[in-house]
Design goal:
- The protein has 6 helices and 7 strands; from the N terminus they run H-H-E-E-E-E-H-E-H-E-H-E-H.
- The radius of gyration is 20 Å and the shape is elongated.
- It starts with a helix and ends in a 10-residue tail after the last helix.
- Helix 1 packs across helix 2 and helix 3 packs across helix 4.
- By secondary structure, it is an alpha+beta fold.
- Strand 2 and strand 3 form a beta hairpin.
- The strands form 2 sheets. Strands 5-2-3-6-7 form a 5-stranded mixed beta sheet, sandwiched between helices.
- The protein folds into 2 domains: 38 residues, GTP cyclohydrolase I, N-terminal domain (GTP Cyclohydrolase I, Chain A, domain 1), CATH 1.10.286.10; 141 residues, GTP cyclohydrolase I, C-terminal domain/NADPH-dependent 7-cyano-7-deazaguanine reductase, N-terminal domain (GTP Cyclohydrolase I, domain 2).
């Protein structure tokens, strides 16, 4: 279902009036349309199938000799994402670190950020976003284990209330063999050993 831009624009106009503003003054005249366009982008993942990018897999055991047996983890670090917190409709942004223990099939590395993009483009909370990413990867691939670590800065923390401008939230979601803390320790060490600068909400 596509975002109803016309309806969003009308509601933004009403919101501007509700806060005591004049939506017809020059600086705000095009704001409803601009917000509608932004929301169409922010919430483009609503109703989309997050597993669709993982539909095309690659065999790791069949191919040029000698044939191989899957063993180690596949990890993609520092996948940038942005989303909108469903509690205050304020943005949060950060990086995702994704790892899985492949079975017989792997997926092109470019597919993993697409899963994050689809699931982040919905009203979200970080905790659920990580769990949904892990469930999607685990469900679509023949993976023996999945690990998703998200680190993000939330505007509802940095810009309101206590205004903790440097605070970031870290969440971990794990499935299969990587659900055991000892099993994922090596992967977490690889993530911590190469931490990017803390993301900041804008």
């Amino acid at each position: 279902m596509a975002v109803d831009r016309e309806r969003v624009g009308a509601l933004v106009r009403e919101l501007l009036e509700a806060i005591g503003e004049d939506p017809d003054r020059p600086g705000l005249r095009q704001t409803p349309e601009r917000v509608a366009d932004a929301y169409a982008e922010f919430f483009a993942g609503v109703g989309q199938d997050a597993a669709a990018p993982l539909a095309r897999t690659i065999s790791v055991s069949r191919g040029p000799a000698p044939e191989t047996v899957p063993s180690g983890a596949v990890m993609l670090r520092d996948v940038a994402f942005r989303s909108v917190c469903e509690h205050h409709l304020l943005p949060f942004r950060g990086v995702a670190h994704l790892a899985y223990l492949p079975g017989e099939q792997v997926v092109g590395l470019g597919a993993l950020p697409k899963v994050v993009d689809v699931l982040a483009a919905r009203p979200q909370v970080q905790e659920r976003l990580g769990e949904q990413i892990a469930d999607t990867i685990a469900g679509a691939l023949d993976a023996r284990g999945v690990l998703v670590v998200l680190e993000a800065s939330h505007a509802c923390v940095t810009m309101r209330g206590g205004q903790q401008k440097d605070a970031t939230a870290v969440t971990i979601a794990a499935r299969g063999d990587l659900a055991e803390p000892a099993a994922r320790a090596e992967l977490l060490a690889l993530i911590v050993g190469r931490r990017p600068e803390s993301p900041s909400a804008e």
